[in-house]
Amino acid sequence: MISKLLFAACLVFPVAAMAADENAQASQQQKKAACTKEASEKKLTGDERKKFMADCTKTDSAATGGTERKLTAQQQKMGACSKEAGDKKLTGDERRHFMSTCLKS
Question: pLDDT tens for residues 3-14?
Answer without folding.
Answer: 665 566 565 555
